[in-house]
Design a protein that fits this description.
The complex is a heterodimer of chains A (404) and B (518). Chain A is mostly beta strands and 404 residues long. Chain A is built from two helices and 26 strands. Chain A folds into two domains: 94 residues, Immunoglobulin-like (Sandwich); 262 residues, no CATH class. The longest helix of chain A has 28 residues. In chain B, the strands form two sheets. Chain B has an 18-stranded antiparallel β-barrel. The longest helix of chain B is centred in the first third of the chain and has 24 residues. Classes of the chains: A mainly beta (404), B mainly beta (518).
């Protein structure tokens, strides 16, 4: 009897300890962290364009808020040390003048895990003459009312001509990509060459009935609602008056939503429209593009596993500019925009803050025209602005905007 | 809530068994008082050890104590996470019972805690363990907490006149609710079992026990005002953190903590003619994982802890009792962080761990010595006096980028109590103590990416300054005791006043209560 008691006793003790064993084994394997080295090289895909003499290299670990900056000779390799193990976005960029052109060299590798020493990393580098039209400022997070409520009708998107030449925005589209907010649940698509497209939930198009020329240094404003948001019936605490916007995304008029002087855009694709084009105040992903064929809403596709979500595929080759907006810096890992379009992301870091993201000034020419950064990396190119301002830094409205 | 009622009822029932049994069996017994219970525990060497099997060797007489009290803490001399004011309503019951040649001991306690004016604590109710992976927010808030603790120990009667077997157990349940956005509901429990055995021969006893503990905590944070999202810091230790938001589609998910602890201890007792020696060596290994968003689990970190401890107790005399306790603790906790990638494949969609490494370490060394003397301690004592000294060294390191926090303190003090008979059944037990804290070393160097955040300037640096600050504590306590026919009733009052050597802050910790001893 006594022996049986002791056996039961020992057995019970052993049984108690079993659940812990697997957890202990995993934790025991973790070594002390040590600095790593990565070997980085540039893969120049330049066609007939001249090669850059030097590239700036940036390694960003968004989770750690840790950044390493250096430079390299594009023809060789670069050994970068002092790397904390983690997930990195590696960008290379350079701006050089060859002959009469300014070339922008850029490339990036996104979500690269550097967890072993001397990891080789190759970054594809392409060259572009300066970008023409770009998303210059986006006010997406909304504002607070004086009573603490949330106001979201004052969203706007400013598109700027950053080039030397006149650009026509006739037929140009702005699209909100799927999913509307940065999330770990990124959808997949079962189509051929799925990685050659981005997938829009909603597309608004500038009318195709006439030309809308935009001169160098001019910008056009696309407003959710091109009204004076500071008037008493809307939100006197709003930072913006958008009556001078060139375009608005009017769905239907209501007692609050008026048909303002701005030109109404065409709702080219939006399977389930709501009374206003409210894009997520947490930060959507946007592209502007000129479609190479008419948009047919019936040609939608569904993400794998979803029949309720309808998206329209846009060839990456048609995209003029893209900006990834996220809720906070840690969500860069949840990117929706391919890195070839935007290697990073920008954020105001909250909602209803009454602040915007705007491109940083690269240079100001003798005639006062401002050239903005366009390295295809929103993490580098944008900064948070308080308050949002349309046509800041002297940007002009096009001559055809007679209501400005 | 139903679970909490069960815990309370179980505890109350468990303890009342001791009380009822004691009363029914007590015919010519001498009544226990608060002073006699102190003597019982001072003479016991196994009751505070890890091994319940040795309880029989303590030869403790039966006792039961019931206590209900209210305590009040107030003052600015505190950590950020501590309430500026705290009100605690507590009930406890403890009992020991000889069962022929076996012995059983149990204790139940309940606390209802209201904290006002806490900062930088969003979802933590248990600060007893090292856990760097927690959430903090800068909003001033109140907390409503409840704590339940059930403890038991049983020792068998001797087997083959040589062997004692026993078990010690503990169940702790804590629930808490933060009262301002971002507000949390937190549920915590741990259960600990320590089966053990003791072999005796001659004047010697050799014991050994194992330890197993399981821990679980769930913390869900939401906003009452859904129009306003709240920014929080998800901490990683020494001020390293990442930003997150409570509210909206990107809201911070639930945090779940799951931990296991395994360990063991060995004890040795030798009875000299003039002294009893008791020594214990303990070791435990703890691992605790922290995950967020259980529907798509992402590891926030893990801790891995190795702890070594040794205690030595010497007991001299019988009528005039002297006791010396020396203890040493060496605990090293490693903070493990994970590199994870999101596998977005359809039907998979989960975070994959591609690398894990120790990013931080939290080391503690503690040496404690205490001397107590009880005059005329056959049952109640006439007076007691003592002194204690404690050295504690906290040495924390964030490895990359390197940051350090080191606090080395010395605590020392003296105390005395006098048991004054007033009349036949009345007596007053009055005591006073003074304790000083000296800082030997203190250094906090944060070399992380965001040195100018509120987290660093308003939380980490002030908390470090508090931990290394020097203070004088003066305390006084009084028990007015009335002996009844089969029990004693006591009214207890206690006050401790903390005054740091620098600054105008201070803190008062006061308590009143009503106790019954059998």
């Amino acid at each position: 009897m006594k022996k049986r008691i002791i056996n039961i006793y020992i057995g019970m003790a052993a049984l108690l300890m079993l659940p812990a064993c697997q957890q202990f084994e995993k934790a025991s394997d973790a070594p002390d962290v040590k600095a790593l080295t990565a070997v980085i090289s540039a893969n120049l895909n330049l066609g007939t364009d001249p090669a850059p003499e030097q590239l700036s290299v940036k390694l960003i670990n968004y989770n750690e808020n840790y950044e390493i900056n250096t430079t390299m000779d594009p023809s060789g390799t670069l050994s970068v040390g002092n790397i904390i193990p983690g997930i990195y976005t590696i960008t290379m960029s350079s701006e050089e003048t060859h002959g009469q052109y300014t070339y922008y060299y850029s490339g990036s590798a996104v979500n690269v895990s550097i967890v072993a020493d001397n990891k080789p990393i190759s970054v594809d580098i392409s060259a572009a003459k300066s970008g023409a039209l770009l998303l210059k400022e986006i006010f997406y997070c909304g504002s607070k009312t004086s009573t603490g409520g949330s106001y979201f009708r004052d969203q706007f998107y400013e598109i700027y001509n950053n080039s030397e030449n006149v650009q026509d925005v006739k037929g140009m589209c702005i699209a909100l990509l799927n999913p509307s907010t940065a999330t770990a649940n990124l959808p997949t698509y079962s189509i051929e060459n799925a990685d050659k497209y981005v997938y829009a939930l909603q597309i608004w198009q500038i009318p195709t009935n006439k030309s809308y020329p935009v001169n160098p240094g001019e910008s056009v404003i696309i407003a959710q609602m091109a009204d004076n948001h500071q008037k008493s019936t809307l939100n006197p605490a709003s930072p913006v008056n958008l009556l001078s916007a060139e375009f608005e995304t009017l769905v239907n008029t209501t007692s609050i939503i008026l048909d303002n002087p701005a030109i109404n855009m065409t709702m080219a694709f939006w399977p389930s429209p709501t009374p206003q084009w409210l894009t997520t105040v947490f930060g959507g992903a946007f592209v502007i593009f000129i479609p190479n064929e008419a948009i047919n809403p019936a040609n939608y596709i569904n993400p794998v596993g979803s029949t309720s979500t309808k998206v329209y595929k846009i060839p990456i080759a048609d995209v003029i500019d893209a900006v990834e907006l996220v809720g906070n810096a840690n969500q860069v890992q949840l990117k929706r925009v391919p890195s070839v379009l935007d290697a990073g992301a920008t954020t105001v870091g909250g909602t209803y803050l009454g602040v915007s993201v705007a491109r940083k000034i690269k240079t100001t020419l003798n005639d006062g025209r401002v050239i903005y950064y366009d390295s295809n990396n929103s993490s580098n190119d944008f900064e948070v602005m308080n308050p949002p301002v349309i046509r800041r830094n002297g940007a002009k409205a096009p001559a055809w905007n007679t209501w400005k | 809530m139903k679970q909490i009622k069960y815990i309370f009822c179980t505890g109350a029932l468990f303890i009342s068994l001791f009380a009822v049994n004691r009363l029914s069996g007590q015919t010519n017994a001498v009544v226990n008082t608060p002073a006699s219970l102190e003597v019982i525990k001072a003479k016991s060497l196994w009751i505070n050890s890890s091994n319940g099997a040795g309880l029989v060797l303590d030869k403790i007489s039966d006792f039961t104590e019931l206590y209900a009290g209210y305590s009040f803490n107030s003052g600015d001399y505190k950590l950020n996470r501590t309430g500026k004011d705290e009100n605690i309503l507590g009930v406890s019951a403890e009992g020991g019972k000889n069962l022929e040649n076996a012995f059983a001991w149990g204790k139940f306690s309940f606390k209802n805690i209201s904290q006002n004016g806490t900062l930088y604590n969003t979802q933590t109710v248990d600060f007893d363990r090292v856990m760097p992976y927690v959430v903090a927010d800068p909003n001033l808030s109140d907390w409503k907490n409840q704590e339940y603790k059930l403890e038991m120990a049983v020792s068998s009667k001797p087997l083959w006149d040589r062997l004692l077997v026993g078990i010690k157990g503990e169940y702790v349940n804590k629930v808490g609710a933060k009262q301002m956005d971002p507000r949390s509901e937190v549920y915590y429990y741990h259960i600990r079992l320590q089966p053990g055995a003791v072999y005796t021969w001659g004047n010697n006893s050799l014991g050994a026990n194992v330890l197993y503990e399981n821990l679980n905590q769930r913390s869900k944070t939401t906003n009452s005002d859904t129009q306003v999202n709240q920014d929080v810091y998800v901490l990683k230790g020494l001020g390293y953190s990442y930003d997150a938001v409570v509210g909206g589609l990107q809201s911070l998910g639930m945090f779940i903590y799951k931990g296991n602890k395994l360990g063991g201890a060995m004890q040795y007792q030798h009875n000299f003619p003039f002294m009893t020696l008791f020594a214990e060596g303990r070791y435990h290994f703890r691992v605790e994982d922290v995950i967020s968003t259980p529907t798509k689990p992402k590891k926030q970190g893990s801790v891995r802890e190795n702890s070594y401890a040794a205690d030595l107790s010497l007991l001299f005399g019988k009528s005039d009792l002297a006791r010396v306790d020396i203890s040493y603790l060496n605990q090293s906790t490693s903070g493990i962080e994970y590199v994870q990638v999101l596998d977005n494949s359809y039907n998979v969609q989960k975070w994959i761990v591609v690398f894990s490494s120790v990013r931080s370490t939290f080391d503690v060394q503690e040496l404690n010595a205490r001397f107590s003397f009880f005059k005329d301690a056959k049952r109640d004592y006439k007076w007691k006096a003592g002194a204690d000294i404690k050295y504690r060294n906290n040495d924390d390191l964030y490895i990359m980028p390197e940051s350090v926090e080191k606090v080395e303190n010395l605590f020392y003090g003296v105390y005395a109590s006098y048991n004054l008979p007033i009349s036949g059944r009345w007596s007053v037990l009055a005591g006073a103590d003074i304790q000083l804290k000296s800082n030997l070393n203190g250094r906090y160097e944060y070399n992380g990416p965001e040195p100018e955040t509120d987290l660093i300037n308003a939380c980490m640096i002030p908390d470090f300054e508090f931990m290394k600050s020097e203070y004088t504590k003066i305390g006084a306590r009084v028990n007015v005791v009335a002996k009844l026919a089969k029990s004693a009733v006591s009214i207890t009052g206690r006050i401790d006043y903390y005054k740091p050597s620098e600054g105008s802050n201070d803190r008062i910790d006061a308590q009143i209560g009503l106790g019954f001893t059998f």
